[in-house]
Design brief:
By secondary structure, the chain is α/β, with parallel strands linked by helices. It has eight helices and nine strands. It has one domain: Rossmann fold, CATH 3.40.50. The chain has a seven-stranded mixed beta sheet with strand order 5-4-3-6-7-9-8, sandwiched between helices. Strands 1-2 form a two-stranded antiparallel sheet. The longest helix has 11 residues. It is globular.
Length: 206
Amino acid sequence: MSTLAVGEKRVDFRVVAELVAPGSRVLDVGCGEGELLELLAIEKNVDGRGIELSQAGVNRSVARGLSVIQGDADRDLGAYPDDAFDYVILSQTLQATQRPRVVLEHLLRIGHRAVVSFPNFGHVRVRLGLLFRGRMPVSENMPYSWYDTPNIHYCTIGDFLDLCAELNARVEKAVALDAKGDRIAETAPNWYRNLFGAQAVFLLSR
């Protein structure tokens, strides 16, 4: 859902690609038109699969030569067996699911590791927009008006860390990106990343 990009690739795609080991078995949940799966196939030689709610997204993914089926993250992940993949990826989709906690539990069950990226609704621009303008934010990273946004569960980096703790999920790596797409220092405290991170990418395991 983010439009922040380097060239034609979203910034979080590059971060995700760095976290995935070459030759891995990968499931991309909510894979859109398959851009990330294609990137991973080219650069990491992964054995990639995808599920996507939109039939148009499935069609475009298949046209790229990718193995993608139509499916719903909220309903269909339960059909996958435990430890079926090395990595399960959920890119800019968690906030659009009906049951984020259940979806995250499935990701950690299906994959040895889960990679999750999402826009940070705790970013300073969001806070200031609400404080001074009294309006829901519209930006490059969240380009939807309140009445047509697919985002139904607004999540901050702090919220996500709390959920990981509740699920006993181990955070192996956490990357926060500012509004320009630059990385915030990993040594920065969580409150700083929650304030200035426009989006985040997490590598999780059990």
